[in-house]
Amino acid sequence: GILHEDLRLLLETSMPAKKKKALLGVADAKIGAAILEELGYQCQTGGVVAEILRGIRLHFHALVKGLTAQSASKAQLGLGHSYSRAKVKFNVNRVDNMIIQSISLLDQLDKDINTFSMRVREWYGYHFPELIKIVSENYTYCRLAKFIGNRKELSEESLEGLEEIVMDSAKAQAILEASRSSMGMDISPLDLINIESFSSRVISLSEYRKGLQEYLRSKMSQVAPSLSALIGEVVGARLISHAGSLTNLAKYPASTVQILGAEKALFRALKTRGNTPKYGLIFHSTFIGRAAAKNKGRISRYLANKCTIASRIDCFSEVPTSVFGDKLREQVEERLAFYETGEPPRKNLDVMKEAVVEASEVVAEVKRKQEKKEKKKKKREKEKKREKQRLETLAAAAEENSVLETEENDIEPKKKKKKKQQQEVEAESEQELEAASEPEENGLEEEALPKKKRKLMVEAAIQEEKKKKKKKKKEKARDSEED
């Protein structure tokens, strides 16, 4: 019941009254059927049940222990957030919201560029009015206004630059001649600076529009390749934008797609009981323009039918391909030829069979490419892991070597100290022996000792000193133990 009421709350904000009632009635019936299947209890659905459920939900925090009104409102808020998050995630998967934004921006840019270029024409026309008749395109006119500046400074040397902009030598020559005999007023350098800066802005906007059109083309080839192959990127994007999303467009019947964008005309015709419109946004496609006046309605109905098929294929296919769009386009071309010459077109079943075979081949190739890419990625990841392991082992080995070197460095000074101590002891013993071997005070000289005896004497003296040191250490250890 609580979930049902939450569903009711969500529906209350976004749907008309008739749809709400119908959907809630269906939800009631489904919940009742599920309870009957699982538990075997007969359930009633109707207005009274809905009011009882609403009352329970209103006083639910009073009926359940430990549940407060604040926690119930938090639960409702959490449900609303999760619902919105699910909606956003669904949109992200299709990426059709990017198409909607880009086509809206493209239309706005068209209007703005047209307005700004007319302003440049009027502003620069005071100085060089003849240029408007020679050059009709807005983008080219703005580039020329920026390039020429003061018409009096235009000479034969600047003819090459004019040809590059206009892409026509005759027009460039005409501009040069017109500048020499122009009826325009003189202009100050400050005014020229302002005109040039504004025209450069218009040029940059026009260049950005070209880049945006390329971006839209690439996005349409990714999201809706069949629809863009059938009717073109711009018209397909306008249909998606008007419907709200690709999913909404796929849900529409062909009769709705046919008059999508002509809602005002439709309601006016229904109100006045006049003729309803034959086409809406799809009028901008090339097919309706190529058809004869009597066949425009028929070809628009046929084209709308094919557009709905293409949008559904794009929306629900796992790997989107333009094969179906190309085949549907061929069918529309054949139908146009049939209206003009009477040549019978191919049957829809035969064309779709061919399309399915070609699409399966394309999908298989795409999957193969994806598998190859995944294999390459895995190989790169493995190589990276190996490289990391190798670097880690090298780093560990380097650390071990540094530790060993430090230990050796610590040991070497100890050895040197011991050697120094031994050398000092030997030197002291030798001095004592020499002192003993020197003549005594009474002047009598003793016989000089041989070398072997001297060495023995020195060794004996060293051993005695070592014994003395050991005894001192033992005594110190005992004293420390006693303390």
From TrEMBL:
<dbReference type="InterPro" id="IPR002687">
    <property type="entry name" value="Nop_dom"/>
</dbReference>
<dbReference type="InterPro" id="IPR012976">
    <property type="entry name" value="NOSIC"/>
</dbReference>
<feature type="region of interest" description="Disordered">
    <location>
        <begin position="367"/>
        <end position="483"/>
    </location>
</feature>
<dbReference type="GO" id="GO:0031428">
    <property type="term" value="C:box C/D methylation guide snoRNP complex"/>
</dbReference>
<feature type="compositionally biased region" description="Acidic residues">
    <location>
        <begin position="425"/>
        <end position="447"/>
    </location>
</feature>
<comment type="function">
    <text>Involved in the early to middle stages of 60S ribosomal subunit biogenesis. Required for the biogenesis of box C/D snoRNAs such U3, U8 and U14 snoRNAs. Part of the small subunit (SSU) processome, first precursor of the small eukaryotic ribosomal subunit. During the assembly of the SSU processome in the nucleolus, many ribosome biogenesis factors, an RNA chaperone and ribosomal proteins associate with the nascent pre-rRNA and work in concert to generate RNA folding, modifications, rearrangements and cleavage as well as targeted degradation of pre-ribosomal RNA by the RNA exosome.</text>
</comment>
<comment type="similarity">
    <text>Belongs to the NOP5/NOP56 family.</text>
</comment>
<feature type="domain" description="Nop">
    <location>
        <begin position="223"/>
        <end position="341"/>
    </location>
</feature>
<keyword id="KW-0690">Ribosome biogenesis</keyword>
<dbReference type="InterPro" id="IPR045056">
    <property type="entry name" value="Nop56/Nop58"/>
</dbReference>
<feature type="compositionally biased region" description="Basic residues">
    <location>
        <begin position="374"/>
        <end position="383"/>
    </location>
</feature>
<comment type="subunit">
    <text>Part of a large pre-ribosomal ribonucleoprotein (RNP) complex, that consists of at least 62 ribosomal proteins, 45 nonribosomal proteins and both pre-rRNA and mature rRNA species. Within this complex directly interacts with TCOF1 in an RNA-independent manner. Core component of box C/D small nucleolar ribonucleoprotein (snoRNP) particles; the core proteins SNU13, NOP56, NOP58 and FBL or FBLL1 assemble stepwise onto the snoRNA. Interacts with NOP1 and NOP58. Interacts with NUFIP1, RUVBL1 and RUVBL2; RUVBL1:RUVBL2 seem to bridge the association of NOP56 with NUFIP1.</text>
</comment>
<dbReference type="InterPro" id="IPR036070">
    <property type="entry name" value="Nop_dom_sf"/>
</dbReference>
<keyword id="KW-0539">Nucleus</keyword>
<dbReference type="GO" id="GO:0042254">
    <property type="term" value="P:ribosome biogenesis"/>
</dbReference>
<dbReference type="Pfam" id="PF01798">
    <property type="entry name" value="Nop"/>
</dbReference>
<dbReference type="GO" id="GO:0030515">
    <property type="term" value="F:snoRNA binding"/>
</dbReference>
<dbReference type="InterPro" id="IPR042239">
    <property type="entry name" value="Nop_C"/>
</dbReference>
<protein>
    <recommendedName>
        <fullName>Nucleolar protein 56</fullName>
    </recommendedName>
</protein>
<dbReference type="GO" id="GO:0032040">
    <property type="term" value="C:small-subunit processome"/>
</dbReference>
